[in-house]
Amino acid sequence: MSVTVSGGGTLAQVLRDGVHSDTRSAVIVVDLDGEKSISSLAELTDAHIDEIYEQPMQRVIAALQEAHTTNCERIVVVVPTTGMSGGACYAPQAALAESARILVKSAARQWGASGITVNAVAVEPHWFSIDSNISGPVAIAPRSLSNEVSPVGVVTWLCSEAARDVTGQTIVCDGGLWM
Amino acid sequence: MNARRLENRVAIVTGAGQGVGEGIARRLAQEGVTVVVAARRAETGEPVVESIRALGGRAICVVTDVSVSESVDACVASTVQQFGRLDIMVHNAFMGGIPHKLEKAQIDKHWTSMSRTGVWASLFCARAAMPHLVQSSARANGEGGGRLILITSPSGVEGSANIPLYSPAKAAQRAIAKSLAREWGEFGITVNCIGPVASSPALLTAFDRNPALQQAIEARTPLGRVGDITDDIGSVALFLASDDSSFVTGQTIICDGGSFLGL
Does some domain include residue A72? Predict the structure, then answer.
């Protein structure tokens, strides 16, 4: 069995190095670039929307279809929590994250009868270079856990046979910041 | 509620030629709002305008294709030119949503129109309206002020088995609302979403084709019916447009008779 990790950046590499599974699995790291923050909506161009939202979203759709075509039993989509919290100066990125997260639910509903599970893991925004000093805080209360957080364990579990009854869910893996 | 309490406000409602947008336009007009019925076709927009005027309201139709940024810009410019202000922007227009299998979905056939009219258009409407909403808030001097309202769907929260790509387009609108709520709070502009289930033409057509669908929806809905576009959905939009909601921002109100309780 194998795990295929799609997407670029540090997070995708961490998952490529760390996630192993006893099932055929696909891990899709959304291609969300927090370095392209837009300081004011007045500066947002059609080209920005295409680059920041549209093209990455089409890649998420294509990656899900590829996972289905290659008979993956477990599919995990990794997004930042910014889609759930919103982020000032990050509207297109937040839209992308939330679109991908909710598409997971649609896919889970359609493909569940085939035994395919589709879930999301929401991680801290810094994994996607989103600056919380700009976006605003993810939550009111401070992070619960003080240790560094890695999503490898959660993603590994969702890719495993043990998670066969879990689908359409979002597991937030951020040390207890978003609750 | 006080009658015609939004007497001096000006609103644009996209997709107001029918369905939920029409209901919102009518309800706002009942409270004295001057309404710009932004419709893709004058054939649908003008009758709504005439019916609003017949009841003593003020409305005009501006033909608008929300999927084209220049068209949205022109609608806003026309509104401000004619009425001198814009206080409330409601983006309701949406096109697409045919059933499909996700694994076979084609971008051009199943996604692009929903992305353009849902996601892109939300950003177009926000961008074009923003300077005028800022002015509205400045005029309001701490009470009322600029309002952006995006019409999403319960499917944008819970996903959809029948139209899987509909849900992400609607989900994006909630994230945009939260983001802009954060960004525009300093100007006193509120940004919220409504997730309706209402007797729109699309839903009524579906009921005609499949009466069991209507029974199923009504059976799963605690209030036992689908919403009325004016009295139920329009009234929630009115609340979000009014001074009563001055401290509400970044939120989604699911207005479906209690069918979806997952927030």
Answer: yes
Position B96 scores a pLDDT of 84
Secondary structure of chain A: what % helix, strand, coil (to 5)? 45, 15, 40
Tell whether B47 is within 8 A of chain A (Cβ). no
A-to-B residue pairs, Cβ atoms closer than 8 angstroms? 142
Interface test with A, best of B106, B113, B166, B182 (most A CBs within 10 A): B182
**Mean per-residue pLDDT pooled into runs of 10, chain B (263 residues):** 78 97 98 97 98 97 98 98 97 91 93 97 98 94 86 95 96 98 96 95 89 92 96 98 96 95 76
Does any domain span residue A89? yes
Stretches where chain A sits below pLDDT 70 are 1
Q: Which of residues 191-250 of B touch A (CB under 8 A)?
A: 250
> Chain B closest CA to A14's CA: distance in Å?
27
Domain that residue A118 falls in? 3-173
Chain A nearest C-alpha distance from B50 (Å): 34
Domains and CATH numbers, chain B: 10-197+228-255 (3.40.50.720)
| Per-residue exposure over B147-169, b if at least 16 CB sit within 10 Å of its own CB, e if not | bbbbbbbbbbbbbbbebbbbbbb
What pLDDT shows up at residue B261?
Answer: 86
Looking at B124, B166, B184, B260, which residue is catalytic? B166
Q: How far apart are CA B94 and CA B100, in angstroms?
A: 17
Interchain CB contact of B32 with A (< 8 Å): no
Residue A179 lies in a domain: no
In which order are the strands placed within the sheet that holds A74-80? A3-6, A25-29, A74-80, A117-123, A170-173
How many domains does chain A contain in total? 1
In B, which residues are within 8 Å of A92 by CB distance?
123
Q: 3-state class of A159 per DSSP? A: coil
Note the pLDDT of residue A39. 86
Query: Could you report the predicted ipTM of this complex, rounded to two decimals?
Result: 0.96
Asked about B166 being catalytic, the answer comes back as yes
In CATH, what number is assigned to the domain containing residue A98? 3.40.50.720
